[in-house]
Amino acid sequence: MERTMTLRRRKVIEALIGYAFIAPTMLGFIVFLAIPMLVGISLMFFHWSMFKPPEFVGLENIQAFLQDPRVLTVYKTTFGMAFGLIISNLTLGLGIALLLNAKMPGVLSGFFRAAYFFPTVVSTVVVAVIWQFLLNKDLGLVNYYLGLLGVDRINWLLSSTWSPIAVIITDTWKNVGFYALIFLGGLKNIPRDYYEAAEVDGATTLHKFRYITMPLLTPTMLFLIITSTIGAMQIFGQSFILTGGGPGDATRTIVMYIYESGIRSFRVGYGAVLSVSLLLVIVGMTTLQFILSRRYIHYQ
Asked: What's the angle, vertex CA 294, arms to CA 289 and CA 295, rounded to 5?
């Protein structure tokens, strides 16, 4: 009996210690995520300009959302740029990771890893300002070097065709190092024995990449696809600073539209509806990716 009580007491103490360790994280989640999310959802049913008390309006904000023609335009822009960002970051990230995974002196390898990762820790504002200068039509270095190749000056920031590409280039330059290092970690986790066995069987480099590297990188790929999708759907800083969302709505993302509606125009209730719509879109896309991943994920 005494032994049973001692075991129970020990389990209770272990449980309390566990709860004590997770308490700060849970408290942060409740205060900074759960409560603001519930408040945001409730604001969908109110008019609030931040200068007067909220006024309950029922489904009026949702009706305005469904009748707003700009919502579809902004979402099309967001999806288009998100697709470009996901493809460019994953493709270039994998390519850089394969180069970094090649045999080279340790010092050189460390230098290249730091060099590629450095833009990731630089402020988005700083990166956008730098690229705003580089992509300037008349004074930018990009057009200068393109001119040496006989290419006419491109109006990167004021063209509805080129401005989304300018945003994609800027964001890719900033974040591709993160993708490269994650891919590199995935490559390092692939047992060398698989490659040696394939070489004994006469497999070429292309065969090893197709039948060993890519299948065993799929868990890493899934992680990066999901994180890149979430990040790309929330892009704001690059568009806001580089182009201001223009020309027209060519680079206006849904997060920019939320900011303009909820903060600039003081339509907090409508901004809450836009925010919830983005949440539902991201949750839907993430769920779909998990469902589809069952067909191509290989763990060994």
From this structure: 100
Let me know whether 101 and 11 are in one domain.
no
- Please check whether residue 300 lies inside any domain of the structure: no
Q: How many residues does the chain have?
A: 300
Residues 69 and 2 placed together within one structural domain of the fold: no
Range of the domain at 211: 60-129+162-293
Cβ(77)–Cβ(253) under 8 Å?
yes
The number of folded domains in the chain is 2
Dihedral of the alpha carbons of 184, 189, 192, 193, in degrees to the nearest 10: -150
Which position has the token pair 């039948």? 211
Dump pLDDT digits (tens) for 231-277. 999 999 889 999 988 888 899 999 999 999 988 988 999 999 999 99
230 touches 175 (CB < 8 A): no
Hey, is 26 helix, strand or coil?
Answer: helix
Q: Are residue 121 and residue 230 in the same domain, yes or no?
A: yes
Give the pTM.
0.87
Quick check: is 298 in a domain? Answer: no
Cβ atoms of 108 and 99 within 8 Å: the answer is: no
